[in-house]
Amino acid sequence: MSETLDPKQKTGTQADPATSVSAPKAQVKQDPHAAAKQQKIVTPEYLFLEAPRTKEFITGSEAAKEAIRRSNVDLAIAYPITPQSETMQLVGVLYGEGYVKEYYRGEEEVGVMAAIAGGSRAGVRCYTATAGPGTLRGLEGIASWPGHRLPVVAMFTCRVVNAPLAIQPDNIEVSYLLNCGMIVFHAENQQDMFDFTLAGFTISEKNDVTLPVGVCCDGFFVTHARGYVRMQDRSLKLPPREPWRGAVPVLDAENPPARLSRDAPVQKSNFMAYNIHAVWQQEVWAAVERSRKYINQYLGGLLTAENVDGAEAIIVASGSAAAQSREAVRLCSEKGIKVGLIKVRSLRPFPTQELRQLCGKAKLIVVPEFNYVGWLAKEVATAIYGFSNAKIIGGPRVYGGQSMPVELIVDEVESGLTGKKSTNVAISQVMGASTADHEAMGHFMRSI
Amino acid sequence: MAKRFNIRMAGVGGQGVVTGSHILSTAVINAGGESTIVPFYGSEKRMAPVESYVRVSDEPIYEIGEITFPHIIIIFHPQVITHGKSYTMPFYFGLKEDGIALINNDGPMKLHKDQARELEERRAKLYYFPATKISLDVAGMDLATNMALMGCIGAITGLTNMIGLEQAVKDRFLGKGFVVSGGTAALDSVVERKFKKKQELIEKNVAVMRAGWNYAVDHGWASPDVKRAEEPVAAAAAN
């Protein structure tokens, strides 16, 4: 190592050159994995509930990255489609730093989701993220994960998937994920991205769950924007996956793939095959039910409720619609209307009992959404049917990634309370009220 | 009750609409408030439409995305109105009742009669503010137009002060880790070459900002608790 001054090395102009020379470049190779190797394994209970946290101002993609840093992930597979988020690129950085053991780029989403299935089946902790059209392209594989009882965490940063295509956030793709049999969380903000991802691994690998977890958010609004995230120290991480704890044996050279069907799928009229299908699906959905206790334990509930007692109206929302609804609650209180807010965090399992209890006395429920079909309104109506006499307004809705103006939510609360015709919600989307008013439907159609 | 303004800024490429919104946002946070911004533009080129949405408040802001119904709109360039150079047409679309339109022009503009009527119907306050003229008079160049407008809007909202604004300008030009696009970085270097050194750039920009602030106070546009900003003693001595 030479102690002489490199001719290119600059000296500080403001100070004595003899003392302000920057240190000669060290020849000793620094281990890029040094920090990762020093990470300490702690219990999930300590990590989620006790470990001190510090606040940082980061994007949703960075929040997901920080969650992965602390998640002891074995395998991450990326496919860099547009639209995507920066998440998988940032997870690649973690691979370089040694926080993730294996990382590669798949050829496309069909291959990525199949490879994730292979990794999980072999007993390692797997992670991937995709968005919009990528989610739907990978859906064939994703829909088969729960039946094969594969613990995985996948992030879906929703973008437009229906025509005309756009790259803005529209969360209609969540509706395709709801019926796969996987656990589905919907993040409102960057903090949720962090918490849901980290807790997702622990919940997904519980013996009586053994299911994939999908962490959804409204892409761009959450992934590309910054927000405050409270995080535990980066020197802590979850225990590694212990595949022997899973509900089914993992695949290796000695264990045949027990969860592959024994008969060729094309065999028809085989009552044994029908029976196996029924058993697998019953197991999957029973496991979804059993995950409730862990969601309560690690995330503090399937929903959060604010100001619901004695409220004139309740807004039920998830994802970015929950963020907009917080402002709507504030605007309503300035107008003297007391409105409660229920934010649904977990869509699968769905907080049915909780909603029945909270909405039992409600007169008006407004469900704003960032998609055309209104999947959340249907979920809410189904859950509380027979337990609440509330009028449910399935709207307002924005599509194609538009930002929902808070004022539209306030309008629905006001018109719902006064019985005035809504200007933004079709009468067919108002549940628990007469739908025979064709004139009102016509009024809606004119206002588009 | 929260003091809250949703502001839509519309201008053309090269005027510093996004830079201006960053500076206002940072200045409000510097003064202890809360703020978020959402820039919105297509291809980056001179004179192409640019919008930026800024939310400022003294309470936490949860809302995300574009602003459809602003309390305040700021028009950086008369062509936004005359040529429709905007993503939002007409320029006052969605302006709330009793809202404010701060327009960079040397005097009142002749608006189409339908537009004038619609603005009157929603009781819009039209503030014509010669931002480019002030920039030329005080800094000797038009590139500080955005600073004049930010000084003016700072006084109108009353959610920041000249110290917060000055610090925001310093953060913008001296701070590390501030990420700008390629087009903005190129424009930054042009701005920097026009001044002898960054210190002069900051002083001139702040002087333009102060002139904007005082213009708002002098014309009775400012928030009731806002007072005229006096020049720092050192700067006054230098003049």
Short summary:
The complex is a heterodimer of chains A (448) and B (239). Chain A is α/β, with parallel strands linked by helices and 448 residues long. Chain A contains 15 helices and 17 strands.
What do these coordinates show?
- The complex is a heterodimer of chains A (448) and B (239).
- In chain A, 35% of the residues lie in helices and 17% in strands.
- Chain A has 448 residues and is of the alpha/beta class.
- Chain A folds into 2 domains: 34-245, Rossmann fold; 303-447, Rossmann fold.
- In chain A, the strands form 4 sheets. Chain A has a 7-stranded mixed beta sheet, with helices on both faces. In chain A, strands 11-13-12-15-16-17 form a 6-stranded mixed beta sheet, sandwiched between helices.
- Residues 9-20 and 441-448 of chain A have low confidence and may be disordered.
- With 239 residues, chain B is an alpha/beta fold.
- Chain B has one domain: Pyruvate-ferredoxin Oxidoreductase, domain 3, CATH 3.40.920.
- In chain B, helix 4 (131-139) packs across helix 8 (198-218) and helix 5 (145-157) crosses helix 8 (198-218).
- In chain B, 43% of the residues lie in helices and 17% in strands.
- In chain B, strands 2-3-1-4-5-6 form a 6-stranded mixed beta sheet.
- Chain A binds chain B through residues 189, 221, 225, 320, 323-324, 326-327, 330, 334, 402-407, and chain B through 1-2, 36, 38, 59, 61-69, 94.
